Amino acid sequence: MASAAMLVPLVLVLCTAAASAAVVEHTFKVGGTKITQLCMNSVIYTANQQLPGPTIEVTEGDTLVVHAVNDSPYPLSLHWHGVYQLRSGWNDGANKITQCPIQPSGNFTYRFNITGQEGTLWWHAHSSLLRATIYGALIIKPRNGPSGYPFPEPYEEIPILLGEWWNRNVDDVENDGYLTGLGPQISNALTINGMPGDQNRCKGSAMYEVEVEYGKTCLLRIINAAVNVELFFKVAGHTFTVVAADASYTKPYATDVIVIAPGQTVDALMNTTASPGRYYMAAHVFDSKTVAVPFDHSTATGIVKYKGVPNYAPAAMPSLPPHDDVVTAGRFYWSLTGLARPSDPGVPTTVDHNMVVTFGLDQAPCAPNQTKCSGFALVAAMNRNSFQFPDQKVSLLEALYKGVPGVYSEDFPDFPPPMQGFRKATAVKKVKYNDVVEVVLQSEQYSSTLGTENHPIHLHGFDFYLLAQGLGRFNPSMKSKYNLVDPQVRNTVAVPAGGWAVIRFMANNPGMWFMHCHLDAHLPLGLAMVFEVLNGPAPNLLPPPPVDHPKCHG
């Protein structure tokens, strides 16, 4: 029986493939792991018996090879969140979008190059709620070493993965959420590097601790791997300088609190110049909902301990913002600006596709198989299209590559249609290679009963420029407020409750690319769509699928 604190990290192996790059190779065995958490003995599903899973470190330009072995009873895929997957879309790991899941007792080797990216990304299961325990950091170092950072070289780099914990089997949690029509129950605890800390009823709960040296600078690589909640994060007695978000550098931004949505990453420098002692790091939920809905009120804690300070010394606790502090959250999200590098092409100024995509939650009659549902069930949509995963024995990418008819339609609307209700469909938006796409993401209140909340919208296969964001309804006059000089570059944006965000990207990567809410409770409800990007001139073509690509089973 292992506690979270006893799950040790994997040692990485790098094999030189060429003078300028390497092949970084891992084997991830996904299977059951016995763990004691919150005074309960549980069996969870992890990669290599670790929570969080193995940290992957690569250098820009390297090739990453991960042999995924599924020793769990669940079909699953692994997604490399934020990796471009240039001409390697078969490896993106989006279940039923770019691949069929790896079946129990099956395996698949993910192999892809990581080019033109530096910073903190992560990987996670892209199948049901399994990503609650199957996830890890993916760190991309500059090709020319620490001198490649646009900030002073830190003395130490510390991954901080924020997560959620359920005392129940998470697949059962999701299944019950479907049967009731109300979505999954709230989590039992939040975690820092897989451990809840000591602010709960279970005495002796595992707590993450890191030792630091006085007078140094640490780089915290913060990842929100939580399934359904945005988070506030602080360290008592310390402040931060944000230098990157979603593996894109930012202009230095000073703050004493990090606000981070599911799927996002933040790199923050922290100077260890406080009086030597023990200091809590802490995270709790930022609740943006406009109606009262239950959420996890727990606080995850860890310890920053200065070298030479005894373990029994009292620790100072940070004062976290109130759960509903939208002002603090908005100030953080909206204050970041991008730091352009000499090689950056800049914001494209000619737009080929202007889209307005509205999205939100509503109520619908219970389906016949929702046997615990009373009256209505939750449904979600983008532009009144409630996304349906394909039920044929083929992924969307395979259907595109092989020309399989009847799997999807190419009629996702550019604007919200003048209709009531929803259409259940597997609809995609088709664009040509190198087309520039601008999307106004507009949060809607379809139901006064349900209200609205922040939605972290994640785009696979691309980074995007975040040109503007605001509250209320977007109107074209707001284009004058676009930041075309130094916008944030993101792969996941927290669209404010009842508000909007404008993103722009160049579709320079052939394939099928998922855009969806990264609150996992909303994905099976239909809050998603897909961009179909056509082939460009050679060599910008979608290659054939790998020979061991998983096959669909019903």
From TrEMBL:
<dbReference type="GO" id="GO:0048046">
    <property type="term" value="C:apoplast"/>
</dbReference>
<keyword id="KW-0677">Repeat</keyword>
<comment type="function">
    <text>Lignin degradation and detoxification of lignin-derived products.</text>
</comment>
<keyword id="KW-0439">Lignin degradation</keyword>
<comment type="similarity">
    <text>Belongs to the multicopper oxidase family.</text>
</comment>
<dbReference type="GO" id="GO:0005507">
    <property type="term" value="F:copper ion binding"/>
</dbReference>
<dbReference type="InterPro" id="IPR017761">
    <property type="entry name" value="Laccase"/>
</dbReference>
<dbReference type="GO" id="GO:0052716">
    <property type="term" value="F:hydroquinone:oxygen oxidoreductase activity"/>
</dbReference>
<dbReference type="InterPro" id="IPR011706">
    <property type="entry name" value="Cu-oxidase_C"/>
</dbReference>
<dbReference type="Pfam" id="PF07732">
    <property type="entry name" value="Cu-oxidase_3"/>
</dbReference>
<keyword id="KW-0052">Apoplast</keyword>
<dbReference type="InterPro" id="IPR034285">
    <property type="entry name" value="CuRO_2_LCC"/>
</dbReference>
<dbReference type="InterPro" id="IPR011707">
    <property type="entry name" value="Cu-oxidase-like_N"/>
</dbReference>
<feature type="domain" description="Plastocyanin-like">
    <location>
        <begin position="420"/>
        <end position="535"/>
    </location>
</feature>
<dbReference type="InterPro" id="IPR034288">
    <property type="entry name" value="CuRO_1_LCC"/>
</dbReference>
<keyword id="KW-0964">Secreted</keyword>
<dbReference type="InterPro" id="IPR002355">
    <property type="entry name" value="Cu_oxidase_Cu_BS"/>
</dbReference>
<dbReference type="Pfam" id="PF00394">
    <property type="entry name" value="Cu-oxidase"/>
</dbReference>
<dbReference type="InterPro" id="IPR001117">
    <property type="entry name" value="Cu-oxidase_2nd"/>
</dbReference>
<keyword id="KW-0732">Signal</keyword>
<dbReference type="InterPro" id="IPR008972">
    <property type="entry name" value="Cupredoxin"/>
</dbReference>
<feature type="signal peptide">
    <location>
        <begin position="1"/>
        <end position="21"/>
    </location>
</feature>
<feature type="domain" description="Plastocyanin-like">
    <location>
        <begin position="156"/>
        <end position="308"/>
    </location>
</feature>
<keyword id="KW-0479">Metal-binding</keyword>
<keyword id="KW-0186">Copper</keyword>
<dbReference type="GO" id="GO:0046274">
    <property type="term" value="P:lignin catabolic process"/>
</dbReference>
<feature type="domain" description="Plastocyanin-like">
    <location>
        <begin position="33"/>
        <end position="144"/>
    </location>
</feature>
<protein>
    <recommendedName>
        <fullName>Laccase</fullName>
        <ecNumber>1.10.3.2</ecNumber>
    </recommendedName>
</protein>
<dbReference type="Pfam" id="PF07731">
    <property type="entry name" value="Cu-oxidase_2"/>
</dbReference>
<dbReference type="InterPro" id="IPR045087">
    <property type="entry name" value="Cu-oxidase_fam"/>
</dbReference>
<keyword id="KW-0560">Oxidoreductase</keyword>
